Amino acid sequence: xxxxxxxxxxxxxxxxxxxxxxxxxxxxxxxxxxxxxxxxxxxxxxxxxxxxxxxxxxxxxxxxxxxxxxxxxxxxxxxxxxxxxxxxxxxxxxxxxxxxxxxxxxxxxxxxxxxxxxxxxxxxxxxxxxxxxxxxxxxxxxxxxxxxxxxxxxxxxxxxxxxxxxxxxxxxxxxxxxxxxxxxxxxxxxxxxxxxxxxxxxxxxxxxxxxxxxxxxxxxxxxxxxxxxxxxxxxxxxxxxxxxxxxxxxxxxxxxxxxxxxxxxxxxxxxxxxxxxxxxxxxxxxxxxxxxxxxxxxxxxxxxxxxxxxxxxxxxxxxxxxxxxx
Length: 326
Prior knowledge:
mainly alpha, three-stranded antiparallel sheet, globular, transmembrane, membrane, transmembrane helix, ABC transporter permease
């Protein structure tokens, strides 16, 4: 009867210990400092001379050069200034589109790619350090299931990254809003997508940590695994968009199987791309755009398959941890 309260208490203490570890290693302040830097960058943006306008049905080009607008289509006017005037370029189509383009770069490219990779590399040492015999034997002597210890540490890291993802999105959203007057709430959808992307790959990092207890293996193994998943995701989209002549049925089957089994980082970026309605002001990924036009892109199944992979890998890691000798 006391198993459930003990498990909840164990997970809670592991989450708390993770935040304590992040403060002790100064990682909390490093990530917060990067968020402050990006927020300062967002506050340096100004958009002048651009007015909001209705979008014409025949308005196809992402950027319309002056003098080349079709009849009935207003040409965009205005300038986007970045870095307090250090860099200037013409607006995309309107003021809001130009701000959303910057949001796409900040969350969809900077945070979702570089940010997630850095978070994976910086947090890869949390679990191996925790699993060292001199650190974990004290916890194993207490009446708590081992899987709860591992789950608590995993969720602690995920919540730590979720907190900083919220800081990043919130800070840059406020910075751009105060600087330009554009307050697009869809930008906040980046938070759950960033956390999902990180959580899926950190599950694999946890698996490596349990199997090897090595920070080096966790760091480089997770990085190589991310590259593998990105390459598999791109290959699937490429073959679905335009099948390559001469590819064998077995090769096509293996690509399909690899796509559905492994996490899909490009798909998660594509989901955020769609939520921000980015196709009207930014160049899409040709392969992903072609798959969408064919009706073969299934974002819900993509997210569910990625989460299923994370659950499966964590389950294997918990089983290995349960049978590990100390």
